[in-house]
């Protein structure tokens, strides 16, 4: 029994109304928006992967000049399409009617990145200044993101900027590829995350592409929290300072989550804050080292489990979201 028939049984609809509801439900168009977006993204990824494999397998027969020319033409064609169809710049969010516009511009930026990387590898166009080879496309991506109002390209630019600074920015790469026992890496990460968060706040105040704030803060929060936790785990004399910084960051992003009604940033703040608090609490208990410490630790585990359950029950109230 479908919903319409149930409503008829409850006396809410008559048979004629139920029939019209059933006809509407049967004949209404089905949205394939996200399916198409997924296919387009996969198409771009497969194209770039195929291009890389083709170049790798045939580099001796195709020739460097031909490869560079082909990549340049593809990149130029994508940007020509983008500039031809782009809307005038505005500080507000810009929506494009064409379903392929974002993907063509994204493909152009990816090809540009491949072109710069290939030319640097083969001809060292930037000499031994590898930082410039990373920073230059990152700046191009950041500028392009604002010109075409593209969050995906903005992510490329932020990733390139962080790579120029010497860190990897995805959460897994942050944990796997960076030596956080090195204090320089920790503070470099803190500076990069701080710059991203501060720039997001500045553009929010100036009302410049405020919708980019989620992307900036998504990178900034993960970089800052992970780097500060690494400093906390280092167990040096600065551990207390790192704990205070994490506490301040948790407070900042909880407020940000409430303002933006964002469950993601609330969850990130709670998870990272819980890790820091748990580490600091048990570190102190180990230092005390008596039976009372064991009881307090057991009570903390039970209380924190209850707090997690309550968090998922009442998170909408915290964010001010009406049911």
Describe the structure.
There is one protein chain. This protein is flat. It has a domain at about 35-165. Helix 10 (about 215-235) runs antiparallel to helix 11 and helix 10 (about 215-235) runs parallel beside helix 12 (about 265-290). It has about 325 residues and is an all-alpha fold. The chain has helices spanning about 5-10, 15-25, 35-60, 65-85, 100-125, 130-150, 150-165, 170-175, 185-205, 215-235, 240-260, 265-290, 290-320. Helix content is about 80%, strand content about 0%. The two termini are about 30 Å apart. The model has no long low-confidence stretch (mean pLDDT about 85).
SSE diagram, text form:
Layout: H1 3-9, H2 15-27, H3 33-62, H4 64-85, H5 101-123, H6 130-148, H7 151-165, H8 171-177, H9 183-205, H10 213-233, H11 239-260, H12 263-288, H13 291-319
Helix pairs in contact: 1-2, 3-4, 3-5, 4-5, 5-6, 6-7, 7-9, 9-10, 10-11, 10-12, 11-12, 12-13
